[in-house]
Design the sequence.
């Protein structure tokens, strides 16, 4: 079955950086688009970034220029590099395969001084 395991979250100061990873299994990774979502406390889950099977990328306006999504098909892993983090980026970040509506367990990112 499809499994997604996120890692890399933690506490970081404003202006800092983190790289999230999502290890995928149970499907032919290179054939599918991958996404990162996030959900802040008391808010709905929102789409952060998408990477297609051809490495095209799309970003939500609130992360453009700060976050970078990428994939390594040899490792069945998708990444989210987050720079210039702000307190409003605090959320649980989830990996998603839209074709299967599959989700990971999430990884918490807290941006605070």
Sequence:
């Amino acid at each position: 079955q499809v499994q997604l395991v996120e890692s890399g979250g933690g506490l970081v100061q404003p202006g800092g950086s983190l790289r999230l990873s999502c290890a995928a299994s149970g499907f032919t990774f290179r054939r599918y688009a991958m996404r990162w979502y996030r959900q802040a406390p008391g808010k709905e889950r929102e789409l952060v970034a998408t990477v297609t099977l051809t490495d095209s990328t799309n970003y939500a306006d609130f992360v453009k220029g700060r976050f970078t999504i990428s994939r390594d098909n040899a490792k069945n892993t998708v990444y989210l590099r987050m720079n210039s983090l702000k307190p409003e980026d605090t959320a649980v970040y989830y990996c998603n395969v839209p074709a299967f509506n599959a989700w990971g367990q999430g990884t918490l990112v807290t941006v605070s001084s």
User: Anything to note?
Assistant: The mean pLDDT is 97. The CA atoms of residues 7 and 110 lie 14 Å apart. DSSP finds no helices and eleven strands in the chain.
